[in-house]
Amino acid sequence: MDQIKKAIERAKANAAATATAIERQVGPGHAASAENWQQPAKSKAPALNVSHQQLERSRIVAHLPGNAVAMSFDLLRTRVLQFMWSKGLSTLVVTSPTGACGKTVTSINLAFSMARLESGHTVLVDLDLRKPQVANYLGIRPGLDVFGVLAGKTALSDALVTLDVAGPRLSILPTLTSADRPSEMVASQEVKDLVKSLVAEFEKCIVVFDMPPLLFADDLISFLPTVDAVLLVVAAGESTEEEVAECLRMIPDNKLAGLVLTKSEEVQRSSYYGYA
């Protein structure tokens, strides 16, 4: 039995038990203790307006408390945060073996879910310098992006944007165009300095990086030493056993925050994203 089938079975078996345990521990719609998170910083710019129709088209739902799929991302949020808090981690990459697995949808929904916590701050960074999609999925077109920050032309605080639907506890650092040399840029000292600046700007918050598929390019491999944890998004029926196994070989065990299953009819019928 391949790893995807195993993960689906684990997700189905653990979904109800996980939901019950989480609600018993922290109450429905909330994650585990966030005592180490600071209060959200004030944004310099007004929050950008986001179309609810655009979010629906992009399958962004985690800002809707009580929505069945949003609850799935709340469960994912809690599992990820428990992993990170237990190790004192603050930076998380979301990736996939190949394209079209749903990594960007997962990144955005996870960040939206984290931002609903009352005592924390989340930063979502589009670091897919090959095919940036976060701004497109949200339907926003801010004037500044990550390239200005990396070039030293834009202050980090000026490039971060907030959204009216997500509130002040979520900051987004968008990327609006692809890079000419994405691998070299991700491996650059400027990107390392950016990560340090984000962690310093929002002490003990969670920084989520949406990055290219792991088997598509070497961007993430060069970035792994800089980031604390990795969440792997796998599409049932599309990602092969060999692809998943290769990704798991490339990600250090101590950095693997979890594996998310998307596009599984069995898991979708139970209203949960699979998590293993």
What's a quick, concise take on this entry?
The chain is α/β, with parallel strands linked by helices.
Give a verbal description of the structure.
- This protein is of the alpha/beta class and 276 residues long.
- Helices cover 42% and strands 15% of the residues.
- It contains twelve helices and eight strands.
- An eight-stranded mixed sheet has the order 3-4-2-5-1-6-7-8, with helices on both faces.
- Helix 3 packs across helix 4.
- It starts with a helix and ends with a strand.
- Residues 10-42 and 267-273 have low confidence and may be disordered.
Task: Please describe the structure with a list of short key phrases separated by commas or semicolons.
8-stranded mixed β-sheet, 12 helices, 8 strands, 276 residues, globular, alpha/beta, 42% helix, single chain
